[in-house]
Write a structure and sequence with these properties.
The chain has 371 residues and is an alpha/beta fold. It is 57% helix and 7% strand. The structure holds fe (ii) ion (FE2) (2 copies).
Length: 371
């Protein structure tokens, strides 16, 4: 049953409507109001499916009522038909601008009233359906985007772990480096996007080790100068691997999809892979960059990486205590490391230690490989 509200200050006209709609008793549930105020109270109460209102009424006019109706979110699309006494174009334009759905001429004949009301309500229910569909679509798009984001993160992490597995570690190191880098970025005042990106991108700082031979990577003793410079190639190898346009296969992927929008995160990862062994004083590798020439992301990851390495035990060394490790970092502030990043490390030392504590146990376990 459709609820229709008729509004007119002339009782004679309201009675006319009453008689007219009698034949539609089983289709329409009609209410009648003699003023805009009375109508407004009824609208809140019965929540009609359509309104037919006179334009010119003493006190509040039809346009005033229309304004009140459209001002309420729930009635933004409610069919509202305005009764106009003549064909005054200006009045009609004003009604349209105020959001009227349609017009009816006075005196109004039943067939016209019925047709226009039915059309307006059909249009409304069609619009409702479209809106509903759009909402469902929007939810689906949001879900898919999240899914895509999750699988993107997973691929990145798996790539980072794959490289880390060769280095006899469990992946706990890259997790800690990511967490510490994110914490330092927060302390340095970078926004949450930056923090999230550095968290993910830093996990790939050593991904280039995939390209270093086992004999060098696993060598128990000290490296010869040649072996060391081979080992140092992991920075450039990592950057090459992560810069998407490097190989033809990516060019083809891009041509086919037009949608390889992972580039910015991978580009950041490449930047970090390339610069995490640079030193503030210019004595690092691979490019001997100094000071501000080193991207801040590289500076942050360098501090997180070295601090975590100092605090970890390796087959050839035991872990340093927090105090000794921190003293070494501070001693190298402005030489190896950016002063600004070391200051952040000092201020957040307790939290950095909490991260190390929380993710230390994993180092004792082997990665579970297939039996
Ligand atoms: Fe490295
Ligand atoms: Fe590392």
């Amino acid at each position: 049953m459709r609820k229709i509200l008729f509004v007119d200050d002339e009782i004679r006209i309201l009675d006319g409507f009453r008689r007219m709609v009698r034949s539609k008793r089983d289709e329409w549930d009609c209410s009648f109001a003699a003023s805009a105020d009375e109508a407004w109270t009824l609208i809140q109460e019965i929540r009609p499916d359509a309104i037919v209102s006179d334009l010119n009424m003493p006190g509040k006019s039809g346009i005033d009522l229309l304004g009140m109706v459209r001002g309420q979110e729930a009635f933004r699309f409610l069919p509202f038909l305005m009764l106009t006494g003549n064909n005054d174009l200006q009045q009609r334009v004003a009604c349209l601008e105020a959001g009227a759905s349609d017009f009816l001429n006075k005196p109004c004949d039943f067939v016209e009233l019925y047709t226009r009301l039915t059309n307006a309500m059909a249009l409304k229910s069609f619009q409702d359906q479209v809106r509903e569909q759009n909402e469902i679509l929007e939810i689906k798009v949001r879900e898919r985007t999240l899914e895509l984001e999750r699988s993107r993160r997973e691929v990145i992490l798996r790539l980072a772990i794959a490289a880390e597995m060769r280095d006899s570690n469990t992946g706990a190191h890259i997790l800690r480096v990511g967490l510490i880098s994110r914490l330092l970025a927060e302390e340095m005042g970078y926004d949450s996007d930056f923090q999230e990106n550095i968290f993910l991108a830093s996990t790939m700082h050593d991904v280039g080790k995939i390209g270093i031979s086992d004999t060098i990577l696993m060598k128990p003793g000290a490296l010869t100068p040649e072996e060391r410079s081979e080992m140092q190639r992991h920075c450039e190898l990592g950057a090459q691997l992560l810069r998407s346009k490097l190989t033809d296969i990516f060019k083809y992927f891009e041509e086919e999809t037009n949608e390889l929008n992972y580039n910015s995160l991978l580009e950041l990862s490449a930047k970090i892979a390339l610069t995490h062994h640079e030193r503030w004083d210019g004595t690092g590798y691979p490019n001997g960059l100094a000071g501000d020439q080193i991207p801040i992301e590289g500076c942050i990851v360098s501090v997180a990486d070295v601090y975590d390495a100092l605090r970890s035990s390796r087959p050839y060394k035991s872990a340093l205590s927090p105090e000794v490790a921190m003293a070494m970092m501070q001693k190298d502030s402005g030489a190896h490391f950016s002063v600004q990043v070391i200051q952040a490390l000092v201020r957040r030392h307790a939290e950095v230690e909490a991260i190390i504590e929380r993710h230390r146990a994993m180092d004792d376990e082997e990665l579970p490989l297939a039996a």
